[in-house]
Amino acid sequence: MITKPKGCTDITGNDSLLWQYVNGVVAEMMRNYNYEYIRTPIFEVSELFHRSVGEASDIVKKETYDFIDKGNRNMTLRPEGTAGVVRSYLENKLYASPDTKKYYYNGTMYRYERPQSGRLREFTQFGVEVIGSNDEIIDAEVISLQYRILEALHIGNLQVNINTLGDNESRENYKKALVAYLEPHLNELCDDCKERFKTNPLRILDCKIDSDSEILKNAPKTIDYLNEYSKERFNKVLRYLDLLEIDYEVNPRIVRGLDYYDHTVFEIVSLDDNNASVLGGGGRYNKLIKELGNIDSYGIGFACGIDRIINLLKEMPLYQSIQKEIDCFVMYVSEEEKLHALDIVQNLRLNGVVCETDNLNKGLKGQFKEADRLNSKYLIILNNEDLQKGLVNIKDNATKEEEKVDIDEVVDYIISHL
After folding, report:
1. Is residue 7 part of a domain?
2. pLDDT exceeding 70 applies to what percent of the chain?
3. What is the count of structural domains for the chain?
4. What single-letter DSSP state applies at residue 62?
5. Which residue range(s) make up the domain with 110?
6. Which pTM value belongs to this model?
7. With DSSP H G I counted as helix, E B as strand and the rest as coil, what are the percentages for the chain, rounded to 5?
């Protein structure tokens, strides 16, 4: 038997209903915040991700799905969403108009890593990218949007962990201090961190292996090396978050794992989750657009893992309350009744009513069981005697009350009672 690849998953049954629910909440919130949907290819030329994410990053070195296509081109399955959106912004000359571009995406990403709970090789993320504005109010809006989406999904006790990397000057000052601090302790760090020390020392602060070591706990803090501009910018972001009533904690350990971040970086966790796992995060990437397209612009965004959100929601009462449900089930026995059933079902569906009918030639007893399995609100029970009089029998499955209704008024009746 052929099975799915390791690190991938099938989404069926109640899980699929939960996925649809989450996607619906995301889409509605994005509309409220005036974000435009954008779709980019699942694979792009490898250079895009290698340049944007960083050649020395763990993602590029260990996790990207790279392949050579039939045209002998180096291609990569997208490991994250930002680079593709920025590429689209540049390629399609969306910078030609001076307005701020606000995009959101929802799609699959791919990373070759050890599969575990909430961490798959094929996973789904929704996220946003705002390009064109460097105003601190946009930093606060982006963080607030992610926070409010998670809140709307009934995930409780949310907290934003926020930090700033500052501008280039601040970041370089901090990098020098961090290198000087870490160098005497290199032999006490993991092999990956020893390599990161040569390529991008800030990534050592993101290490999962050494995360609890006293060395990293006592490392210099980025906020202690900010110049006045970066410090004032960060304070403005925090003031705006206070105004928006977003619960946050300044955490100097937050640096995020990608090369393109500067200034604001953040993650959101649910403290109700025993592991307080990161549900999503992001930050500002003002240098990335210049690097990829030689265009001076600004960008900020976040990404949120739907798989992790689903795993968390499945532990909550919401999961039990979400179940398959239809508006009505049309029942028949004879061939003549079947013709009427087909016509009624079509008219209902074309008028926005969710309905079903028998397609396995079951008897009435079997059809009643099927209607109950589908949690049908109403039953439309056909029989030849009623049909000869131009009537059908409609039963409210909750109250068990029944009523004879003119066959030409079935659609109006069902719609008015839903």
Report:
1. no
2. 95
3. 3
4. I
5. 13-167+227-319
6. 0.89
7. 45, 20, 35
